[in-house]
Write a structure and sequence with these properties.
This protein is of the alpha/beta class. It contains 9 helices and 7 strands. The longest helix is centred in the middle third of the chain and has 29 residues.
Length: 299
């Protein structure tokens, strides 16, 4: 693999086995970074790593749940031990904990489990990684502005709220606050901290759900909600993360970058009326959200 913008840098990607995290791991490796994938799915993580190696990338895998403090500490130690340094932390992992419901519906144990996965894990990851990133300093020949990058994956659901998803909405909003706080605190040592807010991203698992439960007209309904008239791909998010980790982004910190095809900028009243007309014209449309108890929003 030829030298890229991230050559000489080491990145940790949590939840990097598949989906958005899988795309991020592949993109960072393609840009020259040495990547450590941390995930609870060992088989899928290894498969993604094999794909990265097959095209010349450098990658290793670690099995672990980043909700646990010892895993956060161990992943940082592993990256430094294996690659000699740590430069980038991308925090994408989410277990799906917390369930669906309002403040009255959600049990306290489910609330705590959801917050642990959505927020606590990102705090623990940053707490473990920041000293190692600062100690690593910029790679040889790089300016002091290249000390490190942290990118946290929030969601369009951190910018707009949906009823019935109390844990997810609050957790993804809290990711934005955590990102801004870290940006203020660690900018002075050369570490930038930003967040990505994806829209509806067609990951491998979502493609399967759409194939099983939706149809072409249902998919088009979702596409019509986006000014670009399509849903996102993991590669769309990965490209944005790679940019925020690149030298050109050294003056960008504390930003929440929507990667959502323009979904969050639209006046909703107009969109609703357009969608109403489409639904009336296509009464047989189906979406995977029509399934009772459909999972946490995949944004």
């Amino acid at each position: 693999m030829s030298e890229g913008k991230l050559t000489g840098k080491t990145a940790i990607v949590t939840g990097g086995a598949q989906g958005i995290g899988g795309g991020i791991a592949r993109q960072l490796a393609a840009d020259g970074a040495q990547v450590l994938i941390v995930d609870i799915n060992e088989e899928v993580a290894n498969a993604n790593a094999e794909h990265i190696r097959a095209v010349g990338g450098t990658v290793s895998c670690m099995l672990g749940d980043v909700v646990q403090e010892e895993v956060a500490n161990a992943m940082v130690a592993r990256a430094v031990e294996e690659y000699g340094r740590l430069d980038i932390l991308v925090q994408n992992a989410f277990s799906g904990a917390g369930g669906r419901g309002s403040a009255v519906d959600i049990e306290p144990a489910d609330w705590r489990a959801g917050m642990a996965s959505l927020v606590d894990a990102l705090y623990l990851g940053a707490r473990a990684a920041i000293p190692a990133i600062e100690a690593s300093g910029p790679p040889v020949g790089r300016p002091a502005t290249e000390v490190g990058r942290i990118v946290n994956i929030s969601s369009a659901h951190g910018l707009m709220q949906a009823a019935g998803w109390m844990v997810y909405e609050v957790g993804k909003t809290a990711v934005i606050g955590l990102t801004r706080q870290l940006a203020v605190e660690y900018g002075p040592v050369g570490i930038t901290v930003n967040a990505i807010a994806p829209g509806h991203i067609l990951t491998e698992n979502l493609e399967k759900l759409w194939a099983a439960e939706g149809n072409g007209k249902g998919r088009r309904l979702f596409e019509l909600q986006y000014p670009v008239r399509r849903m996102g791909k993991p590669e769309d998010v990965a490209a944005a993360v790679a940019f925020l980790c690149a030298p050109e982004a050294s003056f960008i910190t504390g930003v929440v970058l929507p990667v959502d095809g323009g979904h969050t900028i639209q006046l909703q009243e107009n969109v609703v009326m357009d969608l109403k007309d489409y639904i009336v014209e296509n009464p047989d449309l189906r979406t995977y959200f029509d399934v009772p108890g459909a999972g946490v929003p995949r944004h």
